[in-house]
Design brief:
five-stranded mixed β-sheet, four-stranded mixed β-sheet, 17 helices, 12 strands, elongated, binds zinc ion
Length: about 425
């Protein structure tokens, strides 16, 4: 086996031939002169073989993966060809995108590593400057998603996610059936959501939407009513439960303010216990709640109401769920706990849109919540983004509707 063949086999260079090898010790780099093997001189537009017009005078350089600390570079002088349909063009480069300065293999590594770890760690593994790394990452994501259209959207979920302190938000639109993010845009006002409906969906697509899920904010509800004529609105379970929890906590805070020294010590450490789902309470928790029943009736009452409301989500018949909700609201109003009564008033205003949760078969909850958790993880891992766009790109990369690494040609997807 010759040196060139050996190197080619070692680096798994399929579809190209090595014509020269140079090691540059000072740069810790291995330069390979390469050329396409059997697949050269093809038009990048139509893939047909064209006649060679001339060879470019300067060699182009592509950065490839690292092997044992050596950075591999490809060198090649591309040819200008004449295609019957497309005229004079530069030939297609099989190992890299037309304007890229790195190979598909390295792009693939950049994408996969950024899904797994912080950009800092990934950049170090690939022996790259942090800025170069994020440059490549965002450019590749943009290239892959360029011209992408949303397809077959039937159930949408809309939610806001904060990405920086000081109320900086992005609006995230989920496809609840396929469990992925289809769109992310800066801001959380009506303009942001209008941009999505106007720019990304055709009128036909808007009519195809059957279920829409969002929180209780009037902005999102209004936008869905205006844009999706056939959609049934479902208020998100997660947000309703959160609102009820907040109401219960307000009762606790009220009692805490009114309590005197000894009473306060009895109420200490209660917060997280009350938030717990009934099925997750330990024996110890139950004992504490039992003493609370005698000690502070009002907090206990709020807690029981919160626990009871959870039954609602398990109904499968809408009429039964409606009956339950009506009874629960009556009981809650009688409790004379102002924060809970306020919650009841909100619920009553949106009853129809809460019952639709049962009709939809409970599509809303788990999916957007699960995706939200991943988005939060992405946010925490990056510990701050330089721009909104950087955050948006990473959401597309990790939970977007396009599997971005899978868009790199198969034979370059080696780890
Ligand atoms: Zn062509």
């Amino acid at each position: 086996m010759t040196d060139k063949k050996c190197i080619s086999k070692l680096l798994k260079l399929t579809g190209l031939r090595v014509t020269g090898i140079t090691f540059k010790g000072r740069e810790k780099a291995l330069y390979l002169c390469v050329k396409p093997y059997k697949n050269g001189c093809r038009c990048p537009e139509c893939g047909r073989r064209g006649k060679i017009k001339r060879t470019m005078p300067d060699a182009r350089k592509w950065r490839d993966v690292c092997v044992c600390g050596w950075i591999v570079f490809f060198l090649y002088c591309p040819k200008e060809i004449v295609c019957d349909t497309h005229g004079r063009v530069q030939e297609e480069i099989p190992w890299a995108d037309a304007f890229a300065r790195i190979t598909y293999r390295l792009e693939y590594l950049v994408l996969v590593y950024s899904q797994l770890m912080t950009q800092k760690a990934a950049a170090e593994l690939l022996h790259m400057a942090r800025s170069t790394f994020s440059d490549i990452l965002h450019r590749t994501i943009h290239r892959v998603r360029d011209g992408h259209r949303i397809r077959a959207l039937k159930s949408v979920g809309i939610d806001e996610v904060s990405y920086r302190k000081g109320h900086k938000y992005v609006t995230v639109v989920y496809d609840l059936e396929r469990a992925c993010v289809v769109w992310v845009g800066p801001g959380k006002d009506r303009d942001a959501i209008d941009t999505f409906f106007n720019e990304m969906l055709s009128d036909y697509q808007k009519k195809q939407i059957q279920w829409a899920c969002c929180d209780m904010s009037e902005t999102y509800i209004g936008a869905i009513k205006d844009h999706c004529p056939n959609a049934k609105l479902v208020l998100d379970r997660f947000h309703i439960a959160k609102a009820l929890n907040a109401a219960m906590d307000d009762v606790r805070k009220e009692q805490w303010r009114e309590a005197t020294g000894t009473e306060r010590s009895a109420l200490k450490g209660l917060r997280w216990l009350l938030f717990k789902h009934p099925s997750k309470r330990t024996q110890q928790d139950k004992r504490i709640l039992e003493t609370l029943r005698k000690g502070n009736r009002r907090i206990h009452r709020a807690c029981v109401l919160k626990d009871e409301f959870d039954i609602f989500w398990n109904y499968s018949a809408p009429w039964a769920a409606k009956r339950f909700l009506k009874r629960w609201c009556t009981a809650a109003l009688k409790s004379r706990l102002e924060p809970i009564r306020k919650f009841v008033r909100t619920i009553k205003k949106h009853t129809d849109n809460i019952i639709t949760f049962i009709e939809s078969g409970g599509i809303t909850n788990a999916i957007s919540e699960g995706l939200n958790r991943i988005i939060r993880m992405v946010k925490n891992r990056a510990s701050g983004f330089q721009s909104v766009q950087a955050f948006i790109d990473l959401i597309y990369l990790t939970v977007g509707d396009v599997d971005i690494p899978a868009q790199i040609p198969v034979r370059f997807r080696t780890l």
